[in-house]
Amino acid sequence: MTHIDRRGFLRAAAIGMVAGGPLAALSARTADASTMVKRAFSPDYGPLSPVKDQTTGLELLKLPKGFEYLTHGWTGDLMSDGRPTPPMHDGMAAFQPSGKLKSQVKGSGKGHWTALVRNHEVGAYSGAFVEPAYNPTAGGGTTTLVFDTRRGEFVHSYASLSGTIRNCAGGPTPWGTWLSCEETTEINGSVRHGYVFEVPHDGISDARPYKEMGRFSHEAVAVDPATGYVYETEDATPSGLYRFRPTVRGDLAQGGVLEMMKIGGGAYTTYADGTGTVYPEIDWVVIDNPDPGPGEPGVVRQGIAKGGASFRRLEGAWYHEGKIYIVSTSGGPTGQGQVFEYDLAAGTMRVLFASPNASVLNNPDNICVSPRGGIVLCEDGSGVEYLHGLTTDGEIFPFAENAVVIPAGGVPGKSVAPGNYTGSEWCGSTFDSKDGGWLFANIQTPGITFAITGPWENGSL
């Protein structure tokens, strides 16, 4: 089972932490969203300043004092299998490596290894980079990395899924696999795209599309470990919140039933709902044709026709203690984002938080948690991009600033083009599966994976 991953499984509260962690504190503020404050810097970690990359010597990030990082898997870098690293790094999750994976990698420190499965949101039909491939002409997929948390170095990497396109996000499963999601409904010749693919953290995917999980513009998933149900988000407007009930728990390849959330009497629109809005009447409608072809009604239109609820750009999803947290990137009264909380046992949902303005939170995308209960938000707005932290008091602060500028002469040994990449989005944030001492995250362009460590115990992350 994944010990700590991109969608997170909160562990016991740290000393002095508010019960329930940052989301509980955030919930306590729902009576008045205007009380939410975005601090200029962390009240615990302090302000940001330039820090040199231990790999290249360039100042690629701004971090609080005491934090350091190294980079790996730049676009074009050769992996352990001899293949060049694909571009457009995106969603990612961390796993405790299996014995199978450990046996494939030479070297010591196997007890301190973390496996990372990383998406590549390549939209070009530039050709598959590993077999078996779903579509031999499609250039997206996933790669797998192994990191030694004790020595602080990457020790292995290889291609693990190919022949797909626009692999944006996804999510880990309790049984140790990564669900990689295509954010598209394109058709390339006779090949349909827009599916979910399962990737073992310790091997290569069979590139089989799970068609019964739906063909739509997928974003993220979160799995309820009690039932094995998979909750799926859709990055579109209108978008639906979906639930896939597998025929066999833990074996998605056996198929199942796809459903879309219904709120109240039906055809409800959540776009403008503010902090504290409660939806006590939740139901689910069956999607009759989860794999629509050309000329057939899309999944979201099928759901709306049956009374399904409409959302605006659903992206991040995260399971924690019987609840699913879902991020709407551009929902809410100001269009700056919402965070929904769905209570699995009660069958109720509410708007946990809607950003009052861009200065508090500007279009949140994906989320993850640390074993200390802190939350990391990947902001996908405008201007310079940040990883934001959420304190146990519910206060938002910038933790890491994208300062990636590649000089005119380039970087020795790297094939990335010179330029200013500070506006490129953060994605794939996840803490290591061992003890949470390392935070991994990607800058999508030019395509870099960061491993960040430091005095986490000084604050809520």
Question: How do you describe this structure in short?
Answer:
Pfam families: PhoX. The protein is mainly β and 461 residues long.
Q: Structural class, from helix and strand content? A: mainly beta
Instruction: List segments where confidence is low: pLDDT < 50 over at least 5 consecutive residues.
Output: 1-19
**Helicity range of the residues?**
under 10%
Mean pLDDT across all amino acids: 89
Strand content: 35-45%
User: What distance lies between the first and last C-alpha atoms, to the nearest angstrom?
Assistant: 22 Å
Which sequence of strands runs across the widest sheet? Answer: 1-2-26-25-24-23
**Basic shape:** globular
Keywords for this structure?
461 residues; mainly beta; six-stranded antiparallel sheet; disordered N terminus; 5% helix; 31 strands; globular; five-stranded antiparallel sheet
Commentary on this structure:
- Pfam families: PhoX.
- It comes from Nonomuraea africana.
- This is Secreted PhoX family phosphatase.
- With 461 residues, the protein is mainly beta.
- Helices cover 5% and strands 39% of the residues.
- It is built from three helices and 31 strands.
- Strands 1-2-26-25-24-23 form a six-stranded antiparallel beta sheet, with no helix packed on it. A five-stranded antiparallel beta sheet has the order 13-14-15-16-18, with no helix packed on it.
- A hairpin with a 4-residue loop joins strand 8 and strand 9 (177-182).
- It is globular.
- It starts with 20 loop residues before the first helix and ends in an 8-residue tail after the last strand.
- 56% of the residues are buried.
- The model is unreliable at 1-19 (pLDDT under 50).
